[in-house]
């Protein structure tokens, strides 16, 4: 449905709105002469660019204010700051440890220094040992992938050459924490495991042979992993020395910071809804068809965001009633934006009318072209529509998974929906 709305929005903007900006309204029953005025066309193009860049600036400002984690984030970073921070957390030098007999959950053959040695690993299979507290989960809720997954891995796991964690425990724990979030889809299991083997030095995905074959990440353990049943007298000292050499991981931020993030997110939502109201009112002034397609695009685009914002408020300590009330207040921003848009459009009409009453000459026009503020509203609106239809929505259509056949089928259906939406605008 999002693809259909994008096709309709872009189709109506390109097929109807832009020609009307440069050529005027269509009048089939009357002859029409178009005066070529390069300065006028240039100013109209600048107004389109200003509309586009205005929404870029507003979106960027909201992302900076919310730390890039909340609000309406559509960024797709290839190497995010979260990944860089994860790499800085891990130690660069190997820490020494004393090997001693321990309880055997499985065995694996590893090669060190050109020699084969049998090593008994402590393998954790309990997914509950990999869970973060609800406050920290709330902070990670709306981060983009793979930054969120990498940050989560760095906070629930630590390096330990003598331990391992089953892959199913890692995936199930991550899925249970973030699967309800529809705004930021959960990272695929294979990518999550691959990232875990890259984040931690000497960690690798391997198979443990035994009565039941186990797929594990060797070289890591949970940070809250319980003590082993059997330990030699030298093991506690060795583990204490090993822990002292590990860098300290920053503790979870206090609840005050989480609440601040939630309030910033509410402010961002309110401001964003104002821009939605401006876009909706301007689109209906342009044409009823464009208004309808813009409404559909905004509606289906906002549903997953509102669900994600509601979950973030709950995680930040809001009750369900207070969270719903806060969401209702932010929704009022759309009505405020609509009223502002109507006022601007009516003022623009009045300005244009006064110019026409003076014999078609408007000495206050821009650069001698006769263009008024009212004439600049339509191209400004076209620029905002281009932003909504491209930067704000299309990145959602570009998200793909590892299943090539399924993604190919989904991509074809999305293109068909976009062509259908654009084709309706031609009718």
UniProtKB/TrEMBL annotation:
Residue stretches making up the RFX-type winged-helix domain: 149-224
Domain of life: Eukaryota
Claim: Transmembrane helix is one of the keywords in the record: yes
GO BP, sorted A to Z: intracellular zinc ion homeostasis; regulation of DNA-templated transcription
Annotated stretches, region: Disordered: 67-120
InterPro entries: DNA-bd_RFX, ZIP
Keywords per UniProt: Membrane, Transmembrane, Transmembrane helix
MF terms in GO: DNA binding; zinc ion transmembrane transporter activity
Basic and acidic residues bias: start-end ranges: 70-91
Residues spanning the membrane: 42-58, 323-344, 376-398
Primary location recorded for the protein, binned into one broad class: membrane
UniProt biased composition (Polar residues): 93-108
CC terms in the record's Gene Ontology section: membrane
Compartments, as annotated in UniProt: Membrane
Membrane topology type: Multi-pass membrane protein
Annotated protein name in UniProt: RFX-type winged-helix domain-containing protein
Species, as recorded: Ramalina farinacea
Taxonomic placement: Eukaryota, Fungi, Dikarya, Ascomycota, Pezizomycotina
């Amino acid at each position: 449905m999002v693809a259909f709305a994008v096709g309709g929005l872009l189709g109506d903007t390109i097929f109807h709105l832009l020609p009307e900006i440069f050529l005027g309204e269509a009048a089939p029953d009357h002859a029409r002469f178009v005066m070529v005025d390069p300065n006028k066309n240039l100013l109209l193009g600048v107004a389109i660019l200003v509309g586009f860049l205005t929404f870029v600036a507003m979106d960027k400002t909201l992302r900076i204010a919310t730390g890039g984690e909340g609000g309406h984030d559509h960024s797709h970073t290839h190497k995010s700051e979260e990944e860089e921070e994860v790499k800085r957390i891990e130690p660069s030098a190997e820490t020494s440890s004393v090997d001693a007999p321990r309880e055997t959950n499985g065995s694996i053959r590893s090669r060190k220094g050109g020699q084969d040695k049998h090593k008994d690993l402590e393998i954790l299979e309990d997914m509950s040992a990999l869970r973060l507290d609800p406050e920290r989960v709330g902070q990670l809720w709306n981060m983009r992938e793979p930054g969120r997954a990498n940050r989560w891995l760095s906070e629930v796991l630590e390096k330990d050459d003598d331990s391992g964690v089953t892959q199913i425990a890692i995936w199930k724990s991550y899925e249970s924490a973030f699967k309800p979030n529809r705004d930021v889809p959960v990272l695929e299991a294979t990518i999550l495991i691959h990232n875990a083997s890259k984040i931690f030095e000497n960690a690798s995905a391997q198979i443990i042979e035994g009565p039941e074959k186990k797929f594990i990440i060797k070289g890591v353990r949970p940070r809250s992993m319980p003590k082993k049943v059997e330990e030699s007298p030298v093991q506690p000292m060795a583990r204490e020395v090993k822990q002292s050499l590990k860098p300290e991981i920053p503790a979870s931020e206090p609840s005050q910071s989480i609440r601040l993030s939630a309030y910033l997110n509410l402010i961002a939502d309110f401001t964003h809804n104002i821009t939605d109201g401006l876009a909706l009112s301007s689109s209906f002034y342009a044409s009823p068809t464009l208004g309808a397609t813009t409404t559909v695009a905004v509606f289906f685009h906002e549903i997953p965001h509102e669900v994600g914002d509601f979950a973030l408020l709950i995680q930040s300590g809001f009750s369900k009633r207070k969270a719903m009330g806060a969401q209702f207040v932010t929704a009022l921003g759309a009505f405020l934006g609509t009223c502002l848009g109507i006022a601007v459009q009516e003022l623009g009409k009045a300005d244009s009318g006064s110019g026409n009453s003076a014999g078609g000459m408007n000495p206050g026009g821009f650069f001698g072209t006769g263009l008024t503020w009212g004439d600049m509203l339509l191209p400004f609106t076209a620029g905002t529509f281009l932003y909504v239809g491209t930067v704000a929505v299309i990145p959602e259509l570009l998200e793909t998974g590892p299943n090539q056949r399924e993604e190919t089928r989904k991509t074809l259906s999305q293109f068909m929906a976009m062509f259908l939406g654009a084709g309706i605008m031609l009718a």
